[in-house]
Design brief:
Distance between the termini: 46 Å
CATH class of the largest domain: Alpha Beta
Order of helices and strands: HHHEEEEEHEHHEEEHEEHEHEHEEEHHH
Shape: elongated
CATH topology of the largest domain: Aminopeptidase
Number of strands: 16
Helix content: 25-40%
CATH superfamily of the largest domain: Zn peptidases
């Protein structure tokens, strides 16, 4: 197949990406982005199919085997001060998901008339960013979704069952590298810890109260002291925010709500560290007569890359850069629900450049459209072309892959 057709209509790709970038929406609210992408694909004769979970959908071309899955993430993330942040909730594409969607949609359109063998299905997945938790818990209560993360819902709902393998990509931000390969991602759990004390007048009768903020301060210091127990090879991180810091300055704080992620590359270390956090919260609260209510929600699992797929991707990257410009085997502290998919199917997530600023920062912007859009679209196109024409290689990828969980084990973990 000839990827030069991608050059001819590059302005179409750039325009699609620009529209998406300027219309950010948070997870399970990506209705505008869904319509933009659906209209684009329909205009090129590609039908789309809704998959539920509010905004999830897919588009397929070709028929028969091999069956190649592509992944693009729809959602934005709250980012104060980003030039294209939405006024109502500060949603911004400061993680570059809009570029994923444009790249994958454009690649699928260009593959449509050249694909001779196999099936390619592009899945648009909602809510990769683990945010807007109250809204999502309300959706769970209403039975519109079952879990916080988009791919987790789709995975447990059987949406991905038919595919042989999956290809995903994600911006590296202003990293300085051209591409990245074989990057490891951490797993994490989300915790909401509510410290409860007793309110009284802060000036007249502080002795009659129990200061929940003091309980949190003790806990925060305990977390810092625990850090010396973390092993470097486990890549542990704990980071959080105070979601509610008191009710009024004139009263002893009765309620403090703290949210955090506990991350690790090692699933056993993740469980052990999460238990340490729980113990610290309870004991620090008890030390001053307060209490701590802990709610733990499974986040995402560590990412395991298929090196056989990435071997093909590397060859196609080298058409655009030198080997020294490919960042290989990075250990990243980031996480994503693509990790959960990699438990069950041969999966890759490669990184691409063309941005300045930091991921999740107000300064993230597209600085080089060729690198941010066209080159990764060509890498996807060429990789799909090779895999679709080499069914024996796809069979080898599948044969060497071993799921690290059964679906029953996974469902038990989610509980």
């Amino acid at each position: 197949m000839n990827n030069r057709t991608l050059d001819k209509d590059r302005e179409e790709l750039y325009e699609l990406g620009d529209i998406l970038f300027k219309n950010p929406q948070l997870g399970y609210k990506e209705f505008k982005n869904k319509k933009i992408l659906t209209d684009y694909l329909n205009s090129h004769g590609i039908k789309t199919e809704d998959l539920g979970y509010r905004t999830a959908f897919k588009a397929s071309i070709g028929k028969g085997s091999p069956k190649i899955g592509l992944i693009a993430e729809l959602d934005a993330i709250p980012t104060l001060g980003h030039p294209f942040a939405a006024k109502e909730d500060n949603a911004a594409h400061s993680c570059g998901h809009s570029t994923q969607c444009a790249i994958m949609a454009y690649a699928l359109v260009k593959l449509k008339d050249q694909l001779k063998k196999g099936t390619v299905t592009l899945y648009f997945t909602p809510a990769e960013e683990f945010t807007d938790i109250r809204f999502r818990k309300e959706l769970i209560r209403k039975h519109e979704i079952n879990y916080i993360g988009g791919k987790v819902n789709m995975l447990t709902g059987g949406c991905f069952d038919d595919e042989d393998l999956f290809i995903h990509l994600h911006t590296m931000g202003g990293s300085g590298y051209h591409f990245s390969l074989n990057t490891s991602l951490t797993g994490f759990v989300y915790k909401q810890i509510t410290f409860k004390g007793k309110a009284t007048h802060a000036a007249i009768a502080p002795d009659k109260g129990i200061n929940a903020l003091n309980a949190f301060v003790l806990f925060d210091n305990a977390l810092n002291m625990l850090r010396e127990t973390f092993r470097e090879e486990d890549y542990i991180r704990i980071h959080g925010i105070i979601d509610e810091g008191g009710q009024t300055v004139n009263s002893i704080p009765e309620k403090i709500v703290y949210e955090c992620y506990v991350r690790s590359m090692n699933e056993k270390a993740l469980r052990e560290t999460a238990a340490k956090v729980d113990n610290a919260a309870r004991c620090c609260a008890k030390a001053i007569g307060a209490s701590a209510k802990i709610e733990t929600t499974p986040g995402y699992l560590p990412m395991h890359q298929s090196r056989l797929i990435n071997d093909v991707i590397r060859k196609n990257m080298l058409k655009h850069c030198k080997l020294s410009e490919i960042h290989d085997d990075e250990i990243s502290m980031a996480a994503g629900d693509i990790g959960d998919l990699s438990i069950f199917k041969p999966t890759v997530q490669f990184g691409y450049s063309g941005f300045s600023g930091n991921c999740h920062g107000r300064d993230l912007c597209i600085s080089d459209k060729n690198r941010a859009y066209l080159e990764p679209a060509k890498v996807v196109f060429d990789t799909v072309a090779y895999l679709s024409e080499h069914d024996d290689y796809v069979k080898k990828i599948k044969a060497e892959f071993k799921p690290s969980m059964t679906m029953k084990e996974y469902l038990d973990y989610l509980k």
